[in-house]
Task: structure prediction
Amino acid sequence: MEKLITLHMEKLPEGMYLATSNDIQGLVAQGRTIWETIEIARDVARKLLEAQNPDNTLNKSFTLSTSFDIPVILEI
Result:
């Protein structure tokens, strides 16, 4: 099963990126690049979902997609 989640991305003053999500409580990920941050967020999301469902029976409201859209603002 798959579910699309939305990541909120923020560039920190130190140059790192921070990702959070209202879709999965407790999801916080930080990385050096946007793509690294997304990959870390995916791993964190999977671990959070596994912890919420230790018997590995994820219901439809707590499944994670392997791909998702993320809006990115470009400064030109």
Q: What stands out?
A: The chain is about 25% helix and 15% strand. The first helix runs from residue 34 to 52. The chain has one domain: 8-61. Residues 8-61 form one domain.
